[in-house]
Write a structure and sequence with these properties.
With 430 residues, the protein is an alpha/beta fold. It is built from 15 helices and 14 strands. Helices cover 39% and strands 14% of the residues. Bound molecules: pyridoxal-5'-phosphate and ligand LHPZP3FS. Pathway: Porphyrin-containing compound metabolism; protoporphyrin-IX biosynthesis; 5-aminolevulinate from L-glutamyl-tRNA(Glu): step 2/2.
Length: 430
Amino acid sequence: MEKGKSKSVFAQAQSTIPGGVNSPVRAFRAVGGEPIFMESASGAYMTDLDGNQYIDLINSWGPMILGHGNTLISDAVKEAVTKSLSFGTPTYAEVEMAELICSMVPSIEKVRMVNSGTEATMSAIRVARGYTKRDKIIKFEGCYHGHGDSFLIAAGSGAATMGEPDSPGVTRGTAQDTLTVAYNDMEALKATVAENKDEVAAIILEPVAGNMGCVTPVDGYLQAMRQLCDEEGIVLIFDEVMTGFRLAPGGAQELYGVTPDMTTLGKIIGGGMPVGAYGGKTEIMDMVSPKGPVYQAGTLSGNPVAMAAGLQMLRFLNENRSLYQQLESTQQKIVAGFKSNMDKLGLNYSINAVGSMFSIFFTDQSVKDFETAKSSDLEVFGKYFNAMLERGVYLAPSQYETLFLSTAIGEAEIEKIVTSNYEALKEIHS
Ligand SMILES: Cc1ncc(COP(=O)(O)O)c(C=O)c1O
Ligand SMILES: N[C@H](C=O)CCC(=O)O
């Protein structure tokens, strides 16, 4: 595969962009080699600067659930652009968006639009702190909630990929207020809450973790957490930036039947544009300025172009609910294919999957938390990533990320993914 143009643009980028990329995991540091610069994308495929095509299994890290180039969304964007790129005043599209989100996501009675998932989680914990008048928050090892200072403690995603889960630049004072617990360990969570009685404002988690690879909640875990928060007056926040509108129209909270007090959203909600949101019970959301005293604002929040894209996306998902079965069936076929490949090759790697999210871990341990995720052989992962890339399948360039499917992936792509997996596994074990 010729990659000369990507190579030369990456060299050029080093002089003006830190590390040559605008988000660390894009840099391929964890898998060796150099990043591929994309030129265009359509349906299930991305095309790079050198004209190579790849089946896309990251889908912009989640947002492109319908694949690339969906005309419903691009037409809505074109129309919005003709009216204005930004007013800095309220618009009707924001009201339509708020009503749609409230009708789709069980926990949300009121919602505030922001510009990214990071803004959503940062704002949500500020509101939870204001509401409870407590300072501490609990997060889980290997979960990632964006790059807000409070969350860069035992963080997953790029922080884990770069080996810096506790980032320099976060003050000791901030770090002290973030308590961390192993994912899926209810006893450890109860003990931490007991040790910090009446001091914990919020427990925030990815209800299905995607930032240490895909890790699902064990049976009863989310329910037990709900009960604990009720008993202790703690605000339960589901960070559904990844899982929102992806695992079900109402997100993981609909799939698992557990309603948090607050929810953070991003990715799919913008249809590919930079958008985030946080919402929850009226009583809590009425703490937000100008209704309440907790300040949060944004020059471009509720941007009309982003609202146009997001509205089309959410309306489509709401009205075409059978696509969630289609996505699940695509995932099941791929995972069954991978398992059969491993049987043929005498391998026993671990696969986690739910809906349209899945990960293969290069370990024979069952992966249920960050510790077990870290038992994956990262060297083998790097070889696997590159072997798949050479065959035209673009995976997340880190073990500590989930893969995302889109509805554009059909039978031909499933076959190509499964065949590539067989060849890649065979090649790296020969
Ligand atoms: C669960 C989760 N929360 C928050 C974020 C932060 O979102 P953003 O990258 O849009 O700031 C991400 C992704 O980056 C995420 O996966
Ligand atoms: N895991 C991150 C978000 O989901 C990956 C995207 C990024 O940080 O660039």
